[in-house]
Each structure stands twice: as C-alpha cells, then as structure tokens.
Design brief:
Length: 230
C-alpha cells in the first residue's frame, strides 16, 4: 500500500483539529514539520501518537552526530513513525540517528535534494557537472550504506533508486500534483502525479496544498488514493 501523507503545515491547534476531523479517516500519516512543531511543541505529536495515528516528524536533522543521536532519541520517545535527517550530514550522522532509533518502530529517512530545487539551482549548490537525478541517486546509495531506512526525493528520481537499491528501502515523495504540468503558487519544482509516483515504486506520497485548495478535500484525497490503487 502506498501511504497518503498529509502535512499539517499550520500554526494553531484549532486548524489542526479542523483538518484532522475533516480528512483524518482518509489520511494514513500526518507530517509535522518546523512550523507546527516549533509553534506547538512535542505535546501535539504525543496527542496523535497516543491515539495510534502515524506521525512523520519532518525536522530534517543536520548537525554533529551526537546532537542528532540525542534528537533522534527524543523523537523515538514521542513514538513517531518517520524522522528525517539530511543525507548531506554525512554517514556518521546517519549512523548515529539509526543507532538511536535502535529496535523502535521509528524509521530514519534521509532527505536527498529538496523538491524545491531546480537543476540550475542544484548546479550552484552541489557539483556543477552532476544532474539532480545522479546526485539524488548518490545521496540515496550513500544513505542506504549508512543504515538509513529510506529517502525523501522527487518522483523524477524514485524509479532509478527503486531499480538500484533493495526493495525494502523506503521512498517517500513530496511534490505530488494531479496534473503533470500543474503549477500552483508554491515553491515546488520537480512535481509528478500520483499515477507517476505509483509507477516509480514509491512507498508514500506527501500532498498538502492541493488538498487544502480543493473544493472537496475528502473527495480529492479519495481520487488520489484511487490513482494509487489503479
């Protein structure tokens, strides 16, 4: 089953409660990032995990290994299903996160190249001679060797990772839109459809703004999940 992951990118508990009540039965995993975690803190995460709702804690940890190890321990204690670290933090950092996760059910996902980054931007940040596709594959292989459970990447690179790394290695993809060429007023560059995500062999898709902007969010998610099943 491909998980439908909804990002709770809000500030107030009232907004979170509204969306949870509206689409909670359709959502497989809630993603909690900086915005909500900083404004509301760990208690909000506990509220979900104690109700057996899967939480993807998207904090993109990127620090010295010991600091990341302790941060991971705190996330494990909260009972989250997924925790993100930056692949560029290095093998030792990823290993420290995985060590801290231990035998818990918390999976460590390494962020490769953000889906907001274009090829032109990538050439300024990383190796000028490398395509994003190759760069993401290198990060994925590096993260796998370091013990990560999976990666965050766009659908554009997912199929190559799926062909190259073991089938149990998880691939979660943001930047999902209902139409391949759809562009909304947001910062995503490397986007794809749910059907393309399925064809690429991903384990989960993250979809937020298209849901929020739809006239009927429940029906919208239902249509997305239908594409993932077909």
């Amino acid at each position: 089953m491909i998980e439908f992951i909804f990002p709770l990118d809000f500030f107030s508990p009232r907004e979170v409660e509204y969306w949870d009540q509206l689409i909670g039965n359709e959502v497989d995993v809630y993603k909690i990032g900086y915005q909500l975690f900083i404004s509301q803190g760990p208690e909000l995460v506990k509220n979900f995990t104690e109700k057996n709702k899967a939480v993807f804690l998207d904090l993109k940890l990127h620090d010295i290994p010991n600091t990341v190890e302790q941060g991971t321990k705190a996330a494990v204690d909260l009972g989250v299903k997924y925790l993100t670290v930056h692949a560029s933090g290095g093998a030792e950092m990823i290993q420290s996160a995985k060590k801290s996760a231990g035998n818990s059910h918390t999976k460590i996902l390494a962020v490769t190249v953000l889906t907001s980054i274009s090829q032109q931007q990538s050439e300024k940040i990383f190796k000028p001679s490398s395509s994003i596709r190759q760069l993401v594959l290198d990060f994925a292989d590096y993260s796998y060797q370091a013990g990560a459970d999976g990666v965050i990447c766009s659908v554009w690179e997912a199929s190559l990772i799926r062909e190259t790394l073991p089938p149990e290695f998880l691939i979660i993809t943001p930047g999902i839109r209902m139409a391949e060429k759809q562009r909304t007023a947001d910062d995503q560059q490397r986007v794809a459809t749910p059907a393309q995500a399925k064809s690429a062999g991903v384990n989960g898709i993250v979809m937020g703004r298209p849901v929020i902007n739809s006239a009927d969010p429940v029906n919208f998610i239902s249509r997305v999940k239908q594409q993932l099943r077909e």
